[in-house]
Design a protein that fits this description.
5-stranded antiparallel β-sheet; alpha+beta; Phosphorylase Kinase, domain 1; 3-stranded antiparallel β-sheet; Transferase(Phosphotransferase), domain 1; 229 residues
Amino acid sequence: MSQKLIAQAAEAIILQDDSKIIKRRIAKGYRLPILDEKLRKLRTRSEAKIIEKLSTTVNVPKILNVDEKTKEITMDFIQGKKLSDNLESLDWKKIAKVLGQEIAKIHDSDLIHGDLTTSNMIYVDNSELINKPQLTIPMKQLKKCQNSSSINNNSDFKIFFIDFGLGYHSSRFEDKAVDLHLLKQALEAKHFTIFQYFFKILLENYNSKDRSKILEQLKKVEARGRYKH
């Protein structure tokens, strides 16, 4: 199967090659070539390390190869439904609960996603994976996920987080609060009919070890947004 372009963002193109995804960072003509080369290599390496670190904590694509020369990350293709297109038709209350728990795990790892939107979350029905092991997630990976605490003992579905291109390491409550604030804004823009209740459930289940401090900072972040003109 030849490579097929499935998405194009500001910094990278996403290609599908059979059961694999290739994320290739593209050159930017407005940058000095030496700076562009350095930035793309650094961001490729950083994103791969973040995904690898989270792979034992939450559901993320399995990295198959990292090529800093071509600025490419090759990963498993996650066969599922993009939450941005399907959230309202799914059990969104249960999804909100799981997301709150999973985002807390990301933040407790001192990692910031940087682009927490439902476009970067894939819903995978467990029954489809079990009944169709020929799909893109190997059974070895599936069993690992089923035994992982990141599943929250949920037997119905999994949520995979993708695209950590804007991700970074940080222990600051401010950065974690901003991550949540950007998610809230994205929910309001894309899922306005349910976003208030959805985000309420999500925060109720955001059981970070620093929950109270992060949520207090979130209030300050939201206040700045309201009064910034």
